[in-house]
What does this fold into?
Amino acid sequence: MFSKILIANRGEIACRVIRTARRMGIATVAVHSAADAAALHVEMADEAVLVGPAPSAESYLVIDNIMKAIRDTGAEAVHPGYGFLSENATFAKALEKEKVAFIGPGIKAIAAMGDKIESKKLAQEAGVSTVPGHMGILKDGKEAVKIAREVGYPVMIKASAGGGGKGMRVARNDAEAEEGFHSAVSEAKSSFADDRVFVEKYIEEPRHIEIQVLADGHGNIVHLGERECSIQRRHQKVIEEAPSPFLDEATRAAMGAQAVALAKMVDYRSAGTVEFIVDKDRNFFFLEMNTRLQVEHPVTEYVTGLDLVEQMIRVAAGEKLSFGQADVKLEGWAVEARVYAEDPFRNFMPSIGRLSRYRPPEETDDVRVDTGVYEGGEISMYYDPMIAKLIAGGRTRDEAVGRMRGALDAYYIRGVSHNIPFLAALMAHPRFAEGRLSTGFIDEEYPEGFRTEDALHDDPRLMVAVAATLHRVTEERAAAISGQMHGHKRQVGDSWVALMAGEEYPLTAVLNDHGADIAVSGHTYAVRGDWRPGETMFRGEVNARPVCIQIDRDGIAWCLTHAGSQADIKLLTERGAEMHRMMPEKVAPDMSRYLLSPMPGLLVKVSVEAGEEVKAGQELAVVEAMKMENILRAERDGTVAGIHAQAGASLAVDEKILEFETADG
Ligand code: ADP
It folds into this structure.
């Protein structure tokens, strides 16, 4: 066995590999960019080596720098994680040359599976079912149309070098095929510096189901069942689970056998994943093989009881698999949710900044949090904005999903926007509960994007009842403290009026030893819990239903977060409510004549000048965040009155970039 390994990655996956290596008694070396000097993976590792400045192209992706770190530390093997150099054959060759073990497959497998057309050809040879289509490279838009017609609409135009959902277009007619060809080519060129695209049939109502394989260097190969990853946004996975609610035993066995056959064909070693697209009749078609550890591997670990990183390390060290296919038992159910720093209510705009508060849910045998961040740490613009992977398991799918909902409720993140409201809404969605998944789920269920209306609480009065309890407890304590000072305790009344979303809720709140009994609009809520003023989380039960509710204060308002929804609730005495009714309503300032930065980022350019007349749709400015350039366009015709920020400025969210003339000048 190795005595020291280097992890050529960052973030949660580096931390996850380090954890297993440590358990196996193997010393670890982290590599890091200048921006990651204080990152969690650096702190966790036994040694750390700086490999370059913040941009990954100048640090994590520079093979020479990683090789130097290996030489300097004497690491005997390298785990590449996912992304970065994990599927880079040149890197694997460099390691081989210096006799350093690659904790992954052989060079032949990496190279063969790195290209979609090549791997599809190999899969066909291995007897694997592939998506019907045409394996040639398209020359131009005309040819794209011709071949698309032969394959039969709808079709998918795909970059051969593709990855991460990039360079992919669905076309349902000639015009879309022509247009899809051009946009797929240009995206492929800019993302992969490789503009080869091909056409295949678009599978309708597709489900993404993949098979985990594991092989040693002695010819033993097993599969570890499937994962379903059909909940995707822009072809990127959001929720994954194992097993799939869709597969029967026969389909599972057939997919497993084909995955193993393909792995055999390329002399596969280590952990790998064969991805399939499955149609509504359970016909399955090979998509691609990922020759590395997948982001979503923890759900497989839950149902198999295996540690995949440990298996990868053992295989790389030359050990034989200690079990065969018959020993692989799949038990229970696991779901994974990817927690991202992004704003689901603003078209999933990436969010960067400091995690001012960060409290993940407690880890148990059934709740796992894989993360690379910590409270006070930074979500930087240089890397993937994933905060963590949250994995919940149980004996059944319902139990796993229930635990996931509880864990999402308990996940406390402040300082950056995050997608927990969206994840919670998905987990609560009736169609998700039924297991009627497809890769179109998110577009079909949220056709206008994710809106606050999509994150409504199923019982808003429950939120009122809890806010009333918190308020009553707080008032009682304030009265007790001032009573001690003045020798006379003020009486706190039981009758209150809650204000939430413009509505009044008259209620009574009676405290008892275990919490409070609340009567609101003819409903009673027994709120139980030992919350104390100042705590940011209410954990307890409401009418015997366990709840975990996050608490923030905004002036006198209680801002409660539960089940992905947020409620701002004010509690007033009856007299206070009367006065409140007489207060003029505050009118929000009209910001429509400003162009505001929708995200924190760098103002790359201002494309217009003061006094210029602009047309709706015209480019006004470009803001860069998370390595993406976002073009801000005019929403309607108008005249630019003035410029507030200059190119090169670092913008905060909602910062003014420029101003339009108003109709009245
Ligand atoms: P990438 O390497 O970019 O991740 P994949 O080939 O794995 O690309 O495809 C990613 C996703 O795109 C799949 O999970 C699926 O949702 C969709 N997809 C790919 N090919 C097809 C197809 N032929 N028909 C329908 N959907 C497809």
Q: What stands out?
A: The chain has a mean pLDDT of 94. Residues 131, 156, 162-166, 168, 200-203, 206, 208, 232, 235, 275, 277, 287-288, 439 surround adenosine-5'-diphosphate (CB under 6 Å). Residues 347 and 448 are 10 Å apart (CA to CA). Residues 460-486 form the longest helix (27 residues).
